Amino acid sequence: MIKIKIVVCIKQVPATTEIKIDPETNTLIREGIENIINPFDSYAIEEAVRIKERLGDPDTEVIAITMGPHQAMEILREAISVGVDRAILLSDRAFAGADTWATATTLAGAINKIGDCSLVILGRQTLDGDTGQVGPELAQKMGIPFVGYVSSVLEINKNNMKVKRLMEDRYETFEVSLPSAISVIKDINVPRVPSLRGKMKAKSAEIPVWDSEILGLNKNEVGLSGSYTQVVKIFTPQIKHKTTMIDGTLDEKVEHLYRILKESHLV
Ligand SMILES: Cc1cc2nc3c(=O)[nH]c(=O)nc-3n(C[C@H](O)[C@H](O)[C@H](O)COP(=O)(O)OP(=O)(O)OC[C@H]3O[C@@H](n4cnc5c(N)ncnc54)[C@H](O)[C@@H]3O)c2cc1C
Questions:
Q1: Is the CB of 126 under 6 A from ligand 1?
Q2: What is residue 232's predicted lDDT score, i.e. its pLDDT?
Q3: Is residue 181 part of a domain?
Q4: Among the atoms of ligand 1, which is closest to the Cα of residue 38?
Q5: Domain range holding 125?
Q6: What are 127-165's pLDDT values in tens digits?
Q7: Which residues is 181 bridged to in the sheet?
Q8: Which of 99, 101, 186 to probe ligand 1 with, by most ligand atoms within 8 A of CB?
Q9: Whose CB has fewer CB within 10 Å in the chain, the N or C terminal residue?
Q10: Which parts of the chain register pLDDT below 50?
């Protein structure tokens, strides 16, 4: 019997959109900021667990992976508490400073090591890095199809799946063969809250830590050494717009506004 393995890629991110950058190192200042599962990744976890329930095959396995420091173990336990079967932490000093390409290399290495994976589910993008590049890069590295912005998994069996994805002005439906990778948006489901049983399971779960050696990856392919891009500078753009409040009657406001536009050569 073919065992279906679904891998969910999740990332720990600061619980804020107001990221502070260290001007010296150009890396994120993480001190004093609570960490959470990247919100889109909660939908990815939920969808993986729902697919397992839908297939109704007890042999289906959902595995969560994250590349990060040891504290990222917390989000793997959270994933187990809501139905993920097992989790693996990818952690190594050599993974530090990875850009999206090197991140994808590490994740792909882990998925290959897990072996015979039918489906990889990712979030659409992260709160911190925010590039949305890891999913397509990962699929490219693994040589499997990728569908982004998935809002619904319409059908799935051991060989194929049909998904609906959201574009700016329309929905598109794709049929893809498995193995495939998808990234999901928040319309796809409502993540469940952990049960007491789930929390107990998560607390006692053994979570292995895989480093570059276990993954069989060369240190030059991962982390800063495996990154084609490097952050040279990160800064918040200075907003130089001046706001002018226009008072008066409607006619006066219109006349005033017209004058400003004319003086600015906009009419
Ligand atoms: C040019 C550049 C240089 C960078 N340099 C550095 C640096 O020097 N130091 C540094 O700390 N960071 C650096 N980063 C940030 C780092 O590359 C990203 O945190 C990481 O590659 C993930 O990219 P992202 O957050 O944009 O993920 P996205 O592509 O937005 O994430 C999409 C999905 O991929 C999955 N995913 C993403 N990251 C992980 C992960 N780690 N584990 C498991 N799943 C994951 C999740 O499902 C997520 O929802 C750099 C980023 C860029 C663009």
A1: yes
A2: 83
A3: yes
A4: 49
A5: 5-226
A6: 988 899 999 999 999 999 999 999 999 999 999 999 999
A7: 120, 146
A8: 99
A9: N
A10: none
Q: Which residue out of 19, 29, 131 has the highest number of ligand 1 atoms within 8 Å of its CB and is therefore the one to mutate? A: 131
Do 127 and 88 meet the contact criterion of CB atoms below 8 Å apart? no
Residue 252 lies in a domain: no
Q: What is the pLDDT of residue 181?
A: 98
Tell me whether residue 233 is in a domain. Answer: no
Confidence (pLDDT) at 31: 75
Q: For residue 14, is the peptide bond before it cis, meaning its omega torsion is within 30 degrees of 0?
A: no
Contacts of 145 (CB under 8 A, 6+ apart): 139, 176, 177, 180, 181
Does residue 100 line the site of ligand 1, with CB under 6 A? yes
Q: What is the CATH number of the domain that holds 203?
A: 3.40.50.620
Q: What is the DSSP string of the chain?
A: -PPPEEEEE--EEES-S---B-TTT-SB--TT--EEE-HHHHHHHHHHHHHHHHHT-TT-EEEEEEES-GGGHHHHHHHHHTT-SEEEEE--GGGTT--HHHHHHHHHHHHHHH----EEEEES--SSS----HHHHHHHHHT--EEEEEEEEEEE-SSEEEEEEE-SS-EEEEEEESSEEEEE-GGG--PPPPPHHHHHHHHH----EE-HHHHT--TTTSTGGG-S-------PPPP--------S-HHHHHHHHHHHHHHTT--
Q: Is the CB of 105 under 6 A from ligand 1?
A: no
Indicate the pTM of the whole model.
Answer: 0.88
Residue 68 CA, closest ligand 1 atom number: 41
Q: Does 177 fall in a domain?
A: yes
